[in-house]
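Limitations

Structures in this collection are predictions, not experimental determinations, and the ligand pose is part of the prediction. Treat each record accordingly. The example that follows, with magnesium ion as the small molecule, is included so readers can see exactly what is and is not provided: the inputs are given verbatim, and the output is the predicted complex.
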Amino acid sequence: MSVSVDPRATAFIQRRHGLLINAEVRPSLSGAEMPVFNPATGEELARVAAATAADVDLAVAAARQAFEGSWSQLRPADRERLLLKLADLLEANGEELAQIETLNNGKSIHLSRALEVGASAEFTRYMAGWATKIEGKSLDVSIAAVPGAKYRAYTVPEPVGVVGAIVPWNFPLLMAIWKIVPALACGCTVVLKPADETPLTALRLGQLCLEAGIPAGVVNIVTGTGAQAGAALAGHPGIDKVAFTGSTQIGKVIGHAAVDNMTRFSLELGGKSPVIVLDDTSLDTAAAGAAGAIFFNQGQVCTAGSRLYVHRSAFDKVLERLGTIASSLSIGPGLDPQAQINPLISAKQQNRVLGMIERGVAEGASVICGGERYGESGFYVRPTVLANVRPDMQVVREEIFGPVVVATPFDDLDEVVHLANDSVYGLGASIWSNDLRQVMSLIPRIKAGTVWVNTHNMLDPSMPFGGYKQSGIGREMGHAAIEAYTENKSVCIAY
Ligand code: NAI
Ligand code: MG
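Predicted complex:
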């Protein structure tokens, strides 16, 4: 039985949506709108304003005014209190937010409740605490230029300024929170551009920020396309930092645009994360671990365990069990609490994923299970396991961002290290084994921002998160998030 839709979620979705600039909801200056869809049906769900460069100018100006004005006057403890209030409001409106997310993104209502809402609230509380704990260093310097003069130097982490945040559609509310909250904790203001496909929870979040008492202009939400609103924001000379999560392809475009203005930037990009199963792991643990690593959120996860490497002695048996799990997962809309696999975000992504599977098969891969779409309507792809793959195939090299894993056997640790690192990406990796000696020798050899052991995809606000190689530049979470939204000023006093 499907979850019955909360009337508050319906009322919000059906609203006339505008941009949120300086606490005002307004249409785009051009009057342009864009549709958003329900991935479970393929039908139009709502229409939102489509911002152009002129709207982005207004939003950046509002954020600048708030940064120089009311926001800079607040004490750190006041920023902390406002963020704690926001966390309470996320929870108080949790079911409405979760349902809006599931209707707009397609994901399971369980994930919307636990992650988009639950993890967002926890992250917000964690980051709120940092507002009062940002500190510099006192430096005992040895300057000898003027005989007899004494000096004392210290550093002050200052808010970097106006932040342009551009986020993807796979965790819409959580990604918006990951950017907005640490920026605010540090005293920055924000212009957020949600993904074209998933603007709705970001717009609701903008309202909750106001309800929490966060002053006008501190958080501005500009919905629109990446090509127009996103590009205008990333290249805007009026922002001080751009924070991006999305594809490596667009991350490079954004990095170039930022450097032209010397805008600071952090990029959380794609991945092709290996799952490495050593020979001491039980077959059931290995198969369940591999399934969880790739099928969570339909594989639309930057750290998805999309390359599976199993010791040859266990390869056939693990694959057989993984195939059994994958074929038994029930497929359906996110509002059906029994459905374990939900639609992908869009027809475009569905076609992209199916196209990559097709090319893999044409290049010689064998389909252990899945490999095709599911249902007459909605953007579903069946959980797919591919074997007989070679390292040069597109399915092994490129991020698929769908429920598709490629499996390869290995014979020894040197070989699996080589295979695991044979990628332009380096976001995550997991090692499955209780053989301490082997695990400890593997961890330093894996080029990835996060290495999990006997788990995968587990994140915490205290764990720095980001990529090696083309998976990005910079780290989010933990103290790293504070460094990402502050700039160090050195002060030197002669006395
Ligand atoms: P994308 O990187 O194009 O979109 C992410 C965000 O960037 C969206 O808000 C989009 O509007 C914005 N954007 C797009 N073009 C822009 C531009 N020229 N300037 C500024 N902002 C721009 O990702 P897309 O096209 O939605 O998905 C394509 C592939 O990217 C996926 O199949 C997946 O492989 C990868 N991807 C990875 C994500 C991750 O978390 N690592 C998230 C989303 C996509
Ligand atoms: Mg794109």
